[in-house]
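Might you be able to consider the sequence and fold that I enclose below?
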Amino acid sequence: MKKNKFSIPLFVEVTFFIIAVIIFNYQAFQWIKNSEIQNWQLFAQNVVAGLNPKHIEEMRGEVSDRDQPNFIYVKDQLHRAMEVGKVNKIQWLYLLRVDGKKVTFINDSILKGEPDYTDPGERYIDYPYAVLLAQETKKVQIVSSYTDEWGTYTSVFVPILDWNTSKVVGILGVDIDVNIYRKTIAQKMVWPITITIAATWLLIVLIRQFNNQKILKENESLFHVLTDGVLDAMVIVDGFGKIVLWNKAAESLFKFNKSEVINKDFIGTIFPKNEKIDVDNQKIKDLLEIFKNEKNLTKNEVIELKVYDKNMTDFEAEISISSVRLNSQLHTVSVIRDVSEKKRRNDEILLKNQEINDQAKAILNILDDVNQEKDKVKKQAEDLKKFEAAVNQSNEMMVFSDVNGTVLWGNPAIEKDDRIFFE
């Protein structure tokens, strides 16, 4: 079984493209995710930069802090920062204090009386381990997804350091609902996915176009091989009357190379404009009508007329015209044969036949004359027999002699007369 030599490279190309698409979308996803987290981290660090560590250190983490000026001032800062944070999909801003493995809320952005308000000093039970890491490492910690008693969040934890001692006096927590986080990433992935789909579609189009061109070239090569092997001249003409195929036999017949006639007018090639050529010839008009009328191309036509080669030498040609659709366009296929010798032989045969017919007629006329003469002789012989019978039966004596008087013959009545002896 013959194998397609292009199948393996094409498979490899498609495989590499799929891998590239996966890598591209993964990288786009990571970039968008990191970009969002970096925005929230930058926001959290900006909030921390606006807080005074001394105010936070003086908070005792008790309910009584609510009436302290520092607590009220910091809450107001967090509340106003939260108004800006909502634009970035931030849901919570709060301050934590870590004592060993005990974590308590010391302040947040929610005003008293609002939903989810938390009193200072309330224990944080299901805190993520990143809170302890922020306390220990004094570095920003990010949690992509965790669940506590309030819900599932993506969070940024920023340690608040004393300006003089670098002691951690508190942890700023920034919470974003994980569903909102995922939705934001999904929305921003629309463009990479769109680009991927467009690239995939473009690749499919290019592959198909490449394959079609490759198949077309292979078919054209095969077609040219087949048509060049045809003994008769073959010419294919497009819907505009231009030559698109001119085989080897056509080159030999018309003395034009392929390069001289491709995309040239077919009628103008075999009937060059010349005073010697009768362009008003009815057969030429009939041929033009066949090419102009698409309905005529749906049926095979055969026409015989005089055409001309490159040297203006005329010859009798038989043109068989049919049609074929190439690239959805109707094309005319003309098979042309030089029938000059055939016509000359036919004319000779016709002439010989005419001579034979004339000779046959002459012979028939002679035979007719002979038959007529034969009939005359026969009739004379019959008349002579009748005459001889009448003479023989007559009682009168009859004698036949020549011009010299010599008796040649006498009838029986003479023999009955004793007076005459006839021998």
